[in-house]
């Protein structure tokens, strides 16, 4: 089996930034289609999320993070754009149940101060806390995949 190169903190951070931009675009599209007045009147600083932001966050989380990660794509659109993928530690595709568990393990990675995410930059295997909890790896895609 050919070795996969682990994806470190910064490439994973870039994938998250791309996903965040896509969530914002999806929220704007939903707001325009639904004529969501709270989306257009919200300054975005300290206010509550609009219905469009909540819907887009939920849809993106379920479809593009959980389902895509367990599918043949093996990652969110941000991970696809960065040419990285999520795999089991034995380098096989993860299951839907593991993808859901990994998504909820993000909460533990976020507490406290996002240190669980930063762990991907500190350890040799480039694993974040949620990867350790769920026995997953984030690695660069092979050429042609």
From TrEMBL:
<feature type="domain" description="RDD">
    <location>
        <begin position="6"/>
        <end position="134"/>
    </location>
</feature>
<feature type="transmembrane region" description="Helical">
    <location>
        <begin position="103"/>
        <end position="122"/>
    </location>
</feature>
<protein>
    <submittedName>
        <fullName>RDD family protein</fullName>
    </submittedName>
</protein>
<feature type="transmembrane region" description="Helical">
    <location>
        <begin position="54"/>
        <end position="74"/>
    </location>
</feature>
<dbReference type="InterPro" id="IPR051791">
    <property type="entry name" value="Pra-immunoreactive"/>
</dbReference>
<keyword id="KW-1133">Transmembrane helix</keyword>
<dbReference type="Pfam" id="PF06271">
    <property type="entry name" value="RDD"/>
</dbReference>
<keyword id="KW-1003">Cell membrane</keyword>
<dbReference type="InterPro" id="IPR010432">
    <property type="entry name" value="RDD"/>
</dbReference>
<keyword id="KW-0812">Transmembrane</keyword>
<keyword id="KW-0472">Membrane</keyword>
<feature type="transmembrane region" description="Helical">
    <location>
        <begin position="9"/>
        <end position="34"/>
    </location>
</feature>
């Amino acid at each position: 089996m050919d070795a996969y190169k682990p994806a470190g903190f910064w490439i994973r951070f870039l994938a998250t930034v791309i996903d965040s931009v896509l969530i914002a675009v999806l929220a704007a599209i939903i707001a325009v289609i639904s004529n969501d007045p709270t989306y257009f009147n919200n300054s975005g600083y300290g206010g509550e999320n609009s219905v469009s932001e909540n819907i887009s966050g939920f849809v993106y989380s379920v479809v593009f993070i959980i389902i895509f990660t367990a599918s043949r794509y093996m990652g969110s659109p941000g991970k696809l754009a960065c040419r990285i993928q999520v795999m089991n530690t034995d380098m096989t595709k993860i299951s839907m149940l593991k993808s859901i568990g990994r998504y909820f393990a993000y909460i533990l990675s976020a507490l406290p101060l996002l240190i669980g995410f930063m762990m991907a930059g500190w350890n040799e295997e480039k694993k974040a806390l949620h990867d350790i909890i769920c026995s997953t790896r984030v690695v660069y895609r092979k050429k042609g995949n």
